[in-house]
Amino acid sequence: MSFLSGLAEGFIGLFNEGGSVFMGLVTGIIPTLVVLITFVNAIIKLVGEEKVENLAKATTKYRLTRYTIFPILSVFFLTNPMCYSFGRFVKEELKPAFYDAAVSFVHPITGIFPHANAGELFVYLGIANGITTLGLPLGDLAMRYLLVGIVVILMRGIVTEAITKTMIKKRSEA
């Protein structure tokens, strides 16, 4: 009988833990995201959607800037996870590549601008702890992390764009 009661306690414990995680989201990140979304939308309305779209068009015209400057600006100003909302200013067929570039940049920016992805700061701090243990400077690590991140998001954006275009072409041929 104790086996069954232990099983029952474990079963309800799973849902209690899920409820705790949900409450953490409701009292933590969700209100922050709602306020951030409202703020960004208000800024866009104040500045003018046309001006923001023109800036987005200018920074997404070429692959080089589309998968470097545009995701960097979105991650820096909007932080993770709100940065993905900048995808609304990208052509539909480029959205997967923009998302790939932006999601790939939320860690490399953390070394210099921890506000951009504070929830995942532990990844950078784990690496930084090893570097400081070796007596090496953190500034070099942060810059290398950032620069390698920019190269990676450019490569990922270009590759994802090519894959997306191939898939769209195959779908239209079918």
TrEMBL record:
Lineage: superkingdom: Bacteria
The entry's keywords: Membrane, Transmembrane, Transmembrane helix
A Pfam family that the UniProt record links to this protein: EII-GUT
Transmembrane segments: 20-44, 64-87, 142-163
Protein name listed in UniProt: PTS glucitol/sorbitol transporter subunit IIC
Organism in which the protein naturally occurs: Fusibacter ferrireducens
